[in-house]
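re: ur question from yesterday

yeah so i grabbed the chain u mentioned. its 254 aa long if i counted rite. heres the sequnce exactly as i have it in my notes:
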Amino acid sequence: MSDRPPITLWCLHGAVGMAADWQRFVDEMTALGMDVRAVDLWQYLDSGPQSLEQTSARLNAEASANPGTNILVGYSMGGRIALHAILEKFHPWSAAMIISAHPGLEDQAEKISRQKIDSDWSVKCSEGDWETFLDEWQAQVVLQAKEDQVLEWGDRRLLQSRRKAIARSFIDWSLGRQRNLRADLSRVNIPIRFLTGERDQKFTELARTCVKEIPGASHQVAANCGHRVPWEQSDVFFRVVRDFVTKIMPDPPC
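ran it thru and got these structure tokens back, copy pasting raw so excuse formatting
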């Protein structure tokens, strides 16, 4: 048996997401000899309000206690938390993959507008009919996949028991409350790859602007894919992460 410290992938889900969304990915990477931790982000809000900065600090503290190599994989909202985490001065990450994530709004009017939109989502989540809320959330244009694509992820109906924390996330983790991280990106000191779908033009362009600010960063665009890359093209996503880990680690298990 090898004495080499394990490689651990920490996977952060998106808004109205769940740790179970990563199950197929967990199975695939575990088969290659990696440890994969699908993080339940709602746990950070169970005890009350929590800013993005506080959340990333708690995540970093957990990863710091883990022996071996820690690699961060964050999707959308989870990608924004991941960006905060790797920008902390003494973070525990050896590399990161950021998927379909926003670095922050630049215009104050846009921030105020987004806070209002997210506040409305919070009310719908906490007070409205759960099935209706889910239907409205899934109907957003940015989240649409092609008709022949079946998303392989957790059953959103199971999230009803977490609706208080999810509603809180629309307030505490709103893009409208997030600081614009662009000016800080030049401080990123680990290998980082941005991943977006070719049909997700907005986030593809955002990723391109981020890569320009980070020395050595890379950006990959997944063909025939929208915002939800890990689940619209799960086989492609698996290969992208495997190849990324293989490239950056001197002796990866895969």
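noticed a couple things. The chain has one domain: 7-248. also The beta strands are 7-12, 35-39, 69-75, 93-99, 192-197, 218-222.
anyway ttyl
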